[in-house]
Amino acid sequence: MASGIYLSALEGIAKGAIDFDTDTFKAVFVTSSYTPDFDAHDYRNDVTNEVSGTGYSAGGPAVTMTVNAKDTANNRVDITMAVSSLPSSSITARGAAIYKARGGASSADDLVSFIDFGSDYTSANGAFNVSNSTFRFAT
After folding, report:
1. What DSSP assignment string belongs to the chain?
2. Which tens digit of pLDDT belongs to each residue from 95-134?
3. Which of 21, 25, 66, 121 has the smallest C-beta neighbourhood within 10 Å, fewest atoms?
4. For residue 90, how many C-alpha atoms fall within 13 Å in the half-sphere facing its CB?
């Protein structure tokens, strides 16, 4: 697995369908069996092998998006994703698919990015915390 941005998200951003300042975002935690396809996966229903366990609700926790000030010295804009922690959970996850939550069917939730944790991360009746991640748009 590798972290990245789904191609459909870039299209959604370009067409104004994804707004990091006003939209609602969530993170689906997945096992190591999910392989992101950044070209073909476009909606949450394309994400397979979602984790299950104590303290985890299907669809995953909320994500706070922060659009950082543009960096004119490096010609880029960074967007930071802060995934809500699960205070008391028992799960094992390998990554998280970040998506725009539309409040309905998973086939309408736009995939944005994938965070690969690098290895399985397990919590056993304890906190499950994800470090903030940043993706950047640069010229």
Report:
1. ---EE-HHHHHHHHTT---TTTS-EEEEEE-TT----TTT--BGGG---B---BT--TT--EEEEEEPPPBTTTTEEEEEEEEPPEEEEEEEEEEEEEEE--SS-GGGSEEEEEEEEEEEEEEEEEEE----EEEEEE-
2. 999 999 999 999 999 999 999 999 999 999 889 999 888 8
3. 21
4. 4
